[in-house]
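WARN retry 2 of 3 for item q-0093 after timeout on previous attempt; input resubmitted unchanged.
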Amino acid sequence: ARAKAIDASSPQQQAVAEEGLKGALKSLFAVVENYPELKANENFIKLQQTMEEIEDSVQRARMYYNAVVRDLNTSIAIFPQSMIANMFHFKAREFYTLPGTEQREAPKVQF
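OK item q-0093 returned
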């Protein structure tokens, strides 16, 4: 799942690959539920905190990417930038979207 996310060539392919990666992580944490001593382990607690920080960072990066794409798409559609964009073959980019409501809020990891 991780390799697919890295090798994705478009935002949509990356979103699909990320969904597979999230599913694998959910399975891992479902297994952890059966081991209460692992849930209380200091290293596991740090892992959980780090994952939450990473997910927040990824969410901010998605928002930034979409803002830049919006600005680019707007810029290349307005005269006189549209003439320059056509000369250099600049094309509108796709927004990074996730299926469902997951786009609006980061997934919560619960143990």
